[in-house]
Amino acid sequence: MYAIIQTGGKQYRVNEGMILKIEKIAGEKGDKITLPEVLLVSGDDGEIKVGNPVVPNVLVTAEICEQGKEKKVVVYKYKKRKNYRRKQGHRQPFTKIKIENIAMG
């Protein structure tokens, strides 16, 4: 059984027990969250339900495992022969979740 969910402007294919790194969402380590935007769900019997845009009565529950930041990305702007240099760093926040259940009906 798997589902395709949407969170943070991205789509992910998830199974039960899967650990996933997504865009930051509010919550502390150990909190339970529900991901209601399920775009597609496949049952154990192979039946596939496609949403328009989401599948009704399907929820994906997950547990927050970690809140953190990615490695630093250096943004360097440079114009040759113009003495123009700008250096900036960025660390994108993320949330690591563990998919616990895909509930249909």
What order do the helices and strands come in, and which of them pair?
Blueprint: E1 2-7, E2 10-15, E3 19-23, E4 32-35, E5 38-42, E6 48-50, E7 58-69, E8 73-79, E9 84-90, E10 93-104
Antiparallel strand pairs: 1-2, 1-5, 3-10, 4-7, 5-6, 7-10, 8-9
Which characteristics define this entry?
105 residues; mainly beta; four-stranded antiparallel β-sheet
**What are the secondary-structure elements, in order, as H or E?**
EEEEEEEEEE
What do the pLDDT scores average to? Answer: 95
Find the count of extended strands (DSSP E, 2+ residues).
Answer: 10
Outline type:
elongated
Taken as a percent bin, the fraction of beta residues is over 45%
What is the structural class?
mainly beta
Supply the number of helical segments.
Answer: 0
Low-confidence stretches: none
What characterizes the major β-sheet?
A: 4 strands, antiparallel
Number of domains: 1
End-to-end C-alpha gap: 14 Å
- The strand order across the widest sheet is 2-1-5-6
Radius of gyration (CA) equals 19 Å
The percent range for helix content is: under 10%
